[in-house]
Amino acid sequence: MAPAPLRECGEAWQGRRGARLVMENGRLMAVELLAGRRRAQPTAKASPALRGALAQMQRYLSGQARGFCLALSLRGTPFQMRVWRALQKVPYGSTISYAQLAARAGHPRAARAVGAAMAANPLPLVVPCHRVVASRGLGGYSPGLAWKRWLFALEGIEA
To answer: Where in the sequence numbering do the catalytic residues fall?
Structure first.
């Protein structure tokens, strides 16, 4: 019988913005963006992988880091995985349109499907879907436009 997956959670905060990280067997599987009051801190029993992921997230949220070096457990359809891989290549401080991202993922006529893939992204910030913009403006962002605007300011992107 295989052992049950080891899941653990922790949060990193910068001011009133934070991220809740969910890890399974040392791999990051979900990021939930939070706003409001600071919540629970990781326990002293947190694994080295979780403590390291939280430190990277804290550095990113405070503007001290531009990316992540984490083991990921990213699960999606083959199309979503192609889109998310293409999205991970969009540099910090840059944006890409849904149509451009669709073309990079090998599906130049699938801009709307790219939008659906962005909405299903379980790892916002790490797979930076906030960098995807609509042809006529900012576009959407599943954690909310206030988050997208904040991230644009953090990365020096003009909205």
So the answer is: 129
